[in-house]
Design goal:
The chain is of the alpha/beta class and 467 residues long. The protein contains 15 helices and 14 strands. The strands form three sheets. The protein has a five-stranded parallel β-sheet with strand order 2-1-3-4-5, with helices on both faces. Strands 8-9-14-11-12 form a five-stranded antiparallel β-sheet. Helix 3 crosses helix 9, helix 6 runs parallel beside helix 7 and helix 12 crosses helix 14.
Length: 467
Amino acid sequence: MIYTMNITKRFTSIFIALGITVGLFAQPVSQFKEGERVVFLGNSITDGGHYHSFIWLYYMTRFPNRDLRIMNAGIGGNTALDMYKRLDGDVFSKDPTTLVVTFGMNDSGYMEYNGEDGARFGEEKYKETYDNFKLLEERLKKRSGTKIVMMGGSPYDGTAEIEGNAALRGKNDVMQRIVAFQKKSAEENNWEFLDLNAPMLAINRRFQANDPGFTICGLDRIHPENDGHMVMAYLFLKEQGFNGNVVADFEVNASKKSVVRSVNCEISNIKGNKGTLSFDYLAYSLPYPLDTIPRGWNAKKSQADALKYVPFMEEMNREVIKVSNLEKGAYRMFIDGEEIGIWSSDDLDKGVNLAAETRTPQYQQALSIMHLNEFRWEIERNFRDYAWIQFGFFQEKGLLFANNRASLEALDKELDKNVWLRIHRDNYARMMHQSFRETRQAEMDMIVSKIYEINQPVKRKIALVKI
């Protein structure tokens, strides 16, 4: 518990020292409700990233009866202008009840920052981005029935020491100016707002003090790995007010065989004699499962690595069992007959976080949801690659959604000139067929349906046996 408090104090002091109030932005982001259709509009960090999927996994496990949809509308390389051009065909067509809008990485430009007049280049890109955003803003202002959330994007890490990758001087300064006018727009239009840039930058600077090569923005300084995306998900969920939201929290008095406290759970059928105690436990949520595998091409870090940087477990993933007045000694804990671990009576009196125990039946239940969600994410990526072809290539050629022989021939003529077309060609050759897209969509729908079938908490039998 001391460790938890120290982490919380450390991060609070870091953010305050840098003028950052995490979770206390201008307009808090409201929680997603039953039946919502949430769309994340962005660039490659959204397109190929996991943060929105990690956010949905939180809702899948913490609110098993709150059936909603979270959708990816990112396309690699996009600017605010590109997003404006595909609003109807790729964003509004998803019928969002909530639209999260983020941009800035591509808008702010790249290599010219290290040229002869980087400052002038940055100013030009800022003005260009502002003008493009005003086009986007006008369309969003006219959109009825959709809640708009402006999200300042993850930073360009210009301070990490990365061999073979010289930092672009001043790029993130321009990105932060872009975040500032996003915030201003949110205030003027009564939209919601949060910023990922400043708190992620604070984490980078904190850990770079001891490890100059540290970054949560990826080795290209741009694309966060799994750990960075979990940090993004944590910051988003924190802004939604989930700090302190427990999986379950309960206390059983062993000597009186009574329930002292039960939060988000039910405790019943308490039995015991000398050296043993058992009871039924029904939580209303599942623990949040954290992937320990570095997933993705050339990935080095896993989702669980984010726990080194943010107090997610302490703040948002607590399934606390506390048993008071136990006979002194060490106890084996069993859940549904499965041995989970050994704790002392003092440990149990202080409280044990079962969400950190991967062997529990409820964690294994949540883990199956995590894997299904990853499978869903992989299928959704096929649709995003299809969207890249449509809006990044066919739209300018007047072949948007033509999906015929002429479109495939136009694509093939450019393969030698564009490596991305070569990469996406096979996927498009399949996805151009409506029957194939419908089948892929049916697969996703089936997976989501299965998730909301198996994510229902189950009554468990907990037994403590003195050694």
